[in-house]
């Protein structure tokens, strides 16, 4: 709450500045980080397109989650679009304690990560973790996970070892994201249970039913999560125009599914994917650019629309 109060004061102070002098030339480069997750690569791509159209230069560094948080805390980056909560609560607590970072906005809701079944599995009556064991033969007694060592796999294995939901004689099949999804894709009319999450293009390509009942293993609301945008407090104060853009830059799961699909499935560059989506959804530009100018003080909405159309 303290961080949000501080942010409010900073943004109110920023709004009092003349529109043509909001951001100094030193704000021209905006430093972001990417932990290597396609969802953040996609949203960073959107941010990069907007920033470039406004006359800023985005500088995106690929940094692991722990390194990225340290970089933000120590002033080596300015903005991070990928604060997944509650999974990153420990990192967030450290940042909040430092007093150097503020939250600009919750940029995504409806994210989730838990077990799911394909259409054949749902048609077999499986809607909950507790429904699985009665259909063991139909599922072949297998749960398909991602790469070995992944925390989600560890949760599944612990569930099996504890014989929760009667799954003690089931098998965890570890492979990787693409191998797992390939297995689901070729399953046809055979029920399959697997790890699924959103945002991800699998939600557009596969008829997925997320299973209830796994709160103890994956958290409530189907392993529900929200994603937040964090920024350096000093950067927000010094660069209020860019900070306003990021405070209004919010996404939704269907949008990210589409962007990630263009990147993962079509091999599109993140900025190319963003330009294509923006050209098809110009209404998003109006909301994101409300009250935002170019770096030299010109109307921001018109600049972005011209860049996307060009």
TrEMBL record:
Single GO BP term: choline transport
Domain ABC-type glycine betaine transport system substrate-binding, first and last residues per copy: 29-280
Protein name: Choline ABC transporter substrate-binding protein
CDD domains noted in UniProt: PBP2_ChoX (cd13640)
Gene Ontology molecular function: any one: choline binding
GO cellular component, one term: ATP-binding cassette (ABC) transporter complex
Signal peptide from the UniProt entry: 1-21
Organism of derivation: Paracoccus subflavus
NCBIfam families: ABC_choline_bnd
InterPro entries: ABC_choline_sub-bd (IPR017783), ABC_Gly_betaine_transp_sub-bd (IPR007210)
Top-rank taxon, per record: Bacteria
Alphabetical keyword list: Signal
């Amino acid at each position: 709450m303290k961080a949000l109060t501080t942010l409010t004061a900073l943004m109110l102070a920023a709004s009092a500045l003349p529109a043509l002098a909001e951001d100094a030339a030193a704000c021209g480069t905006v430093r972001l980080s990417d932990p290597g997750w396609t969802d953040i690569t996609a949203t960073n791509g959107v941010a990069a397109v907007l920033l470039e159209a406004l006359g800023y230069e985005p500088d995106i560094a690929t940094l692991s989650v722990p390194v990225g948080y340290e970089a933000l805390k120590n002033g080596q980056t300015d903005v991070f679009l990928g604060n997944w909560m509650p999974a990153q609560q420990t990192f967030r607590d450290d940042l909040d304690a430092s007093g150097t970072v503020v939250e600009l906005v919750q940029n995504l809701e409806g994210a989730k990560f838990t077990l799911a079944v394909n259409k054949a599995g749902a048609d077999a009556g499986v809607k909950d973790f507790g429904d699985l064991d009665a259909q063991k033969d139909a599922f072949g007694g297998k749960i398909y996970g991602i790469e070995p060592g992944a925390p989600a796999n560890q949760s599944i294995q612990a569930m099996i070892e504890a014989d929760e939901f009667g799954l003690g004689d089931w098998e965890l099949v570890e492979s990787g994201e693409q191998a797992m999804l390939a297995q689901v894709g070729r399953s046809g009319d055979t029920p399959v249970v697997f790890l699924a999450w959103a945002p991800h293009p699998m939600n557009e390509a596969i008829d997925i039913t997320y299973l209830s009942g796994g709160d103890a293993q994956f958290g409530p609301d189907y392993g529900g999560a929200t994603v937040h945008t964090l920024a350096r407090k000093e950067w927000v104060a010094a660069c209020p125009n860019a900070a306003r853009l990021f405070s209004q830059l919010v996404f939704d799961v269907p949008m990210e599914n589409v962007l990630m699909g263009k990147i993962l499935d079509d091999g599109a560059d993140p900025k190319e994917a963003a330009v294509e989506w923006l050209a098809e959804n110009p209404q998003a530009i109006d909301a994101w650019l409300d009250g935002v100018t170019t770096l030299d003080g010109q109307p921001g909405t018109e600049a972005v629309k011209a860049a996307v159309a060009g």
